[in-house]
């Protein structure tokens, strides 16, 4: 099935120049965004950073690096194979746009300052981290808040941790995508400590963590990149998954990542799919998905002793009789009314076409799957209202998404479809709403976690409760 947008942020392309551009969240939430507060930057002397201009970006970087050194100074020796933490050889702040070729003088692993433009990197041969102060850090702060700066640096620091743990050289021949996933995981562990207020200089809240997720999703591999590519860092779903594994776990979880780890990133399977960017139009997507949704959810309901009657599909206002407006969002499941069948109502004249075009077609697909999940819950006499109903429906949407292309499915997800799903989940709560409009979770992080639980655990996990 054709889906997903092929466009990527310019910073992602630049990121492949040297090492890895990740992102995430940190600092202080103000007006819904993670932004720097005086507690982070005041008194943080960045003079230990070589090339610093002493500005706001480098003071934030200094606070981040100081907390990273303190955290890993305690965590590293406790890991299997860990030794006392050895500080990095140096940190370098570079402004590629300063117009001075000498700006990169003395920066290991750089021939000229343009090589670091739009990125940050860890150089293992010199054991240093360097970043673009002039373009990258300001843009990260504008787009995602200070959170993104913190996780770019914590990801790069994760590569330094890898080298300190890999005393046998076992990681030298590991796939790049695995090394990047492990660094994303280490970044998640660090951000959890920041969120918990366990570090001296950095703080964040739910808005900061969602800023983290936004940056991770934004800085993904171009759609269709092979997971075997020497520069592969992972698609948005894989990067978010690695980050959440670390955030919800401990450093040992990340250190134990091995070649058995599965990735969803894939190449395009046909020239036609690649030419379309993996996307179907709104109506073709509905026409393709509805029969498959009926098939899969019907099988799951009948397998559990329920009776499945396929819902009708209506393109109207997505408003159920007796409700106050479109409380479920642009796609709604409505219970039988007046003896007729239940129906999935799709508001194709509202914002749905915009999200479909801007995010990609599986943004719509995720909404459809969650509403069919609600229909399945009703058929099994499970709650469809409140947080419980919304959570189970969203989880079932993830379970369906993992099953597409298997069994009797007539199509498969295109590269990037899962990315579109998590992008929608970060932006809005509509796929997690019960039939009464109550959302299952107030943060993008939690919505993505619930969706992932369905992807990895299947429908049984959803019906047990997540």
What attributes does this structure have?
466 residues; mainly alpha; 3-stranded mixed β-sheet; 16 helices; 7% strand; elongated; disordered N terminus
| Helix-strand sequence | HEEHHEEEHHHHHHHHEEEHHHHH
Oligomer: single chain
The description of the largest β-sheet is: 3 strands, mixed
Question: How do the strands of the widest beta sheet line up side by side?
Answer: 3-5-4
SSE inventory with pairings:
Elements: H1 10-15, E1 28-30, E2 33-35, H2 38-41, H3 56-75, E3 90-94, E4 120-123, E5 128-132, H4 136-144, H5 146-165, H6 176-195, H7 206-218, H8 236-247, H9 251-255, H10 271-275, H11 282-303, E6 312-315, E7 331-334, E8 343-346, H12 352-358, H13 361-379, H14 386-403, H15 417-427, H16 444-464
Parallel strand pairs: 3-5, 6-8
Antiparallel strand pairs: 1-2, 4-5, 7-8
Description:
With about 475 residues, this protein is mainly α. Helices cover about 45% and strands about 5% of the residues. The protein is built from 16 helices and 8 strands. The chain has helices at about 10-15, 40, 55-75, 135-145, 145-165, 175-195, 205-220, 235-245, 250-255, 270-275, 280-305, 350-360, 360-380, 385-405, 415-425, 445-465; strands spanning about 30, 35, 90-95, 120-125, 130, 310-315, 330-335, 345. Strands 3-5-4 form a 3-stranded mixed β-sheet, with helices on one face. A 3-stranded mixed β-sheet has the order 6-8-7, with helices on one face. Strands 1-2 form a two-stranded antiparallel ribbon. A hairpin with a 2-residue loop joins strand 1 (about 30) and strand 2. The longest helix has 22 residues, at about 280-305. It is elongated and about 75 Å long.
């Amino acid at each position: 099935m054709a889906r997903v947008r092929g466009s990527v942020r310019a910073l992602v392309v630049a990121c492949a120049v040297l090492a890895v551009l990740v992102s995430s969240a940190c600092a202080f939430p103000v007006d819904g965004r993670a932004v720097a507060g005086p507690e982070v930057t005041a008194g943080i002397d960045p003079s230990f950073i070589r090339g610093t201009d002493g500005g706001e970006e480098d003071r934030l970087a200094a606070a981040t690096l100081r907390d990273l050194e303190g955290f890993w100074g305690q965590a590293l020796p406790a890991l299997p194979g860990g030794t006392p933490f050895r500080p990095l050889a140096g940190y370098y702040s570079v402004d590629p746009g300063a117009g001075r070729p000498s700006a990169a003088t003395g920066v290991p692993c750089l021939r000229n300052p343009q090589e670091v433009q739009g990125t940050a990197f860890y150089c293992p041969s010199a054991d240093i981290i360097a970043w673009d102060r002039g373009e990258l850090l300001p843009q990260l702060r504008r787009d995602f808040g200070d959170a993104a700066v913190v996780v770019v640096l914590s990801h790069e620091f994760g590569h330094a941790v890898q080298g300190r743990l890999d005393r046998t050289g076992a990681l030298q021949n590991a796939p790049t995508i695995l090394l990047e996933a492990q660094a994303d995981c280490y970044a998640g562990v660090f951000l959890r400590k920041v969120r918990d207020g366990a570090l001296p200089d950095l703080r964040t809240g739910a808005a900061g963590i969602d800023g983290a997720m936004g940056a991770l999703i934004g800085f993904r591999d171009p759609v269709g990149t092979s997971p075997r590519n020497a520069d592969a860092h992972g698609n948005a779903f894989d990067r978010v998954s690695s980050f959440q594994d670390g955030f919800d776990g401990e450093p040992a979880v990340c250190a134990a990542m091995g070649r058995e780890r599965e990735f969803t990133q894939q190449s395009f399977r046909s020239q036609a799919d690649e030419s379309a960017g993996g996307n179907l139009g709104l109506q073709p997507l509905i026409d393709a998905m509805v029969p498959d949704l009926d098939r899969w959810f019907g099988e799951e309901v009948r397998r559990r002793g329920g009776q499945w009657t396929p819902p009708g599909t209506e393109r109207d206002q997505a408003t159920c009789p007796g409700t106050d407006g479109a409380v479920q969002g642009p796609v709604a499941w409505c219970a039988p009314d007046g003896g007729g069948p239940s129906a999935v109502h799709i508001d194709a004249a509202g914002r749905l076409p915009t999200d479909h075009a801007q995010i990609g077609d599986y943004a719509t697909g995720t909404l459809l799957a969650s509403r069919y999940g609600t229909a399945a819950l009703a058929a099994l006499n499970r709650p469809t209202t409140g947080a419980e109903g919304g959570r189970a429906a969203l989880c079932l949407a993830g379970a369906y998404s993992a099953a597409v292309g298997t069994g009797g499915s007539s199509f498969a997800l295109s590269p990037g479809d899962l990315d579109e799903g998590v992008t929608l989940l970060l932006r809005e709560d509509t796929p997690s709403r019960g039939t009464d409009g109550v959302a299952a979770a107030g943060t993008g992080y939690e919505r993505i976690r619930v969706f992932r639980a369905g992807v990895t655990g299947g429908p049984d996990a959803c019906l047990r409760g997540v």
